[in-house]
Amino acid sequence: MNSIRYGAQHLQYDDLQAFVVMANHVHLLVRRRVSPSRFLQTLKGYTAREANRLLGRTGQPFWQAESYDHSVRDDRESDRIKAYIENNPVKAGLVANAEDYLWSSAAKAEMNLGSAGLTACATKVK
Q1: Closest CA to 120 of 13, 11, 17, 12
Q2: pTM of the prediction?
Q3: What domains can you pick out in the chain, each with its CATH number?
């Protein structure tokens, strides 16, 4: 989660709107300020290095090569995607309420949602 917030706050590559970190995938809703390839390369590179360091691995891929991104058209779609992202742990049976999952923007009351121009992104971990 630190690397997700780092990209938004320090690098200013994006405005983070919603996120969830699951055991085998991540969902993000962001308003990008850089190209999709640069955004994903930076995010995946940093998180892979950190995850592999914590796992004591070197030279092994962490992320799968593919990712899914989608341009959000309006506030209604944005609200739907945010709800999907934040309710992912509930749907997976990990918590009863989205607010109870610590690795999600639902756990932080100050997260707010913008409008059109957002990108939804999901990438699976190997």
Answers
A1: 17
A2: 0.73
A3: 2-124 (3.30.70.1290)
